[in-house]
């Protein structure tokens, strides 16, 4: 695509710059060349409510943990990497908040978010199914419960759920489409809130 062409041309320019610096070339013929590769418009689909409902319907057929991960992603707008690294000690059902650790956040922001009713219900059900307290992972790896579920595993869950829900394939849709839907729903709310 357009972005890859730009990366390749930037690499070629860097190689020629290296050649000039190493004394192998007297000038870089690519120095001032700026290619016109057109406007790049990335695909950023949102997970709409209808598709979310379809994914929720097939969640139990995918994996027992997929439904909870889906609700967490859709209701909190957090990245799947941060969701995978949640521990039961981060879930406070008495105060109805979730603590997001800075070490698991892409931008290193430690914060708490309130739970919605559907999220609270999903967390209570998950805790009933698999009682966990303390530092145990909410999404443990199937073969090694001392580790969180891998990003590859949650990616497989997503792909399986899309097929079972018979969603039309759409490039760019995945876990992050929940985050984009969350942000779009709250675009009128001030950023700190």
Report low-confidence residues grouped into runs of 5 or more: none
Task: Count every helix, treating DSSP H or I runs of 4 or more residues as helices.
Answer: 7
Strand content: 5-15%
Strand order of the largest sheet: 1-2-3
N-to-C CA distance: 37 Å
Q: What characteristic shape results from the CA principal axes?
A: elongated
- The secondary-structure element order is HHHHEEEHHH
**Biggest sheet features:** 3 strands, antiparallel
Structural class: mainly alpha
Q: Indicate the mean pLDDT.
A: 89
Indicate the radius of gyration in whole angstroms. 22 Å
Q: Count the E strands.
A: 3
| Helix content range | 40-55%
Descriptive key words:
193 residues, mainly alpha, 3-stranded antiparallel beta sheet, 7 helices, 3 strands, elongated
Describe the protein.
With 193 residues, this protein is mostly helical. Helix content is 46%, strand content 5%. The protein contains seven helices and three strands; from the N terminus they run ααααβββααα. The protein has helices at 2-21, 49-62, 66-76, 80-84, 117-129, 151-164, 175-185; strands at residues 91-92, 97-100, 111-114. It has a three-stranded antiparallel beta sheet with strand order 1-2-3, with no helix packed on it. Helix 2 (49-62) packs across helix 6 (151-164) and helix 3 (66-76) packs parallel to helix 7. The longest helix has 20 residues, at 2-21. It is elongated, with a radius of gyration of 22 Å.
């Amino acid at each position: 695509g357009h972005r890859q062409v730009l990366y390749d041309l930037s690499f070629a320019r860097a190689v020629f710059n290296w050649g000039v610096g190493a004394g192998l070339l007297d000038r870089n013929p690519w120095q001032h060349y700026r290619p016109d590769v057109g406007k790049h418009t990335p695909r950023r689909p949102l997970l709409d409510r209808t598709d979310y409902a379809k994914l929720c319907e097939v969640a139990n057929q995918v994996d027992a943990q997929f439904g909870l991960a889906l609700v967490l992603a859709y209701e909190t707008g957090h990245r799947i990497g941060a969701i995978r690294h949640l521990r039961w000690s981060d879930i406070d059902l008495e105060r109805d908040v979730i603590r997001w650790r800075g070490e698991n956040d892409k931008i290193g922001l430690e914060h708490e978010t309130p739970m919605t009713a559907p999220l609270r219900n999903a967390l209570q059900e998950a805790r009933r199914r698999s009682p966990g307290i303390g530092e145990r992972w909410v999404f443990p790896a199937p073969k090694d419960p001392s580790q969180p579920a891998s990003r590859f595993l949650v990616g497989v869950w997503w792909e399986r759920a899309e097929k079972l829900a018979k969603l039309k394939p759409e490039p760019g849709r995945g876990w992050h489409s929940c985050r984009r839907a969350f942000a779009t729903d709250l675009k009128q709310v001030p950023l700190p809130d």
